[in-house]
Design goal:
This protein is an alpha+beta fold. Helices cover 31% and strands 22% of the residues.
Length: 219
């Protein structure tokens, strides 16, 4: 069954570069970004893991933990980290799952249940579907799923932007418009009646259409 937004993120226990974790327990009461990679020592993923390490403080500010995954053993991740530091300037500063039994990849629908065998004998092309971003909320529900092709590097600045939107809209009954970023105007959620909205926004709102009610971002 395909994992969808608002499904409970499957729990699991896994070995990582920072020890064994139980996913739900490890995430605690914060948010989690789980991003997966088809193979260690691959070029696009090398750039991604290095960039994620550089901007990890931005995730920390938002109470978001970062968790990588690759269908390779943990000891291979350690060797890869040296290459990442050498070429990107920053080594991974977050745990990376060694998913050598494909358990997590299967749980999250990134590989078919029939996959088996030695992961070191598989190529990146064999694992090309393991190229995803999952954002999980404090309620352990999946909030975002992004799936990328092997040849396209992910935009983690966009992931931060989406998290800002998710955290804002979880706290306030608003939605964010196209290309929204912190500080921009927002839209009153459709589930809020005009009567309710008047109590929250006594100063009123801009409404080019009755269903498009624009207000400053709540603080």
């Amino acid at each position: 069954m395909t994992l969808q937004i608002n499904d409970t993120a499957p729990d699991f226990e896994a070995d990582t570069t920072q020890g064994t974790i139980r996913f739900h327990e490890w995430g605690g009461d914060g948010w989690v970004v789980l991003f997966s990679h088809p193979k260690d020592f691959t070029p696009v993923c090398t750039t991604e893991l290095g960039y994620m390490a550089k901007i990890k403080p931005e995730f920390d500010k938002r109470n978001v933990k970062v968790l990588g995954l690759s269908v390779d053993p943990v000891d291979a991740h350690g060797r890869w980290a040296n290459d990442i530091k050498e070429t990107q300037g920053t080594a991974p500063n977050y745990p990376i799952i060694g998913d050598s039994d494909y358990k997590v990849s299967k749980l999250y629908g990134m590989l078919p249940a029939s996959v088996s065998g030695d992961p070191t004998k598989r190529t990146a092309a064999d694992n090309l579907t393991v190229r995803n971003v999952f954002v999980v909320g404090p309620d352990k529900k999946v909030k975002l799923i992004l799936v990328y092709p092997m040849t396209t590097g992910r935009n983690f600045d966009e992931v931060l932007r989406v998290i800002d939107s998710l955290q804002l809209t979880a706290k306030h009954r608003v939605a964010t418009p196209v290309n929204w970023k912190q500080g921009d105007d927002v839209i009153i959620a459709g589930s809020v009646s005009d009567e309710e909205a008047k109590k929250v926004y006594p100063q009123g709102w801009k409404a080019p259409k009755p269903y498009l009610r624009i207000v400053p971002q709540p603080r």
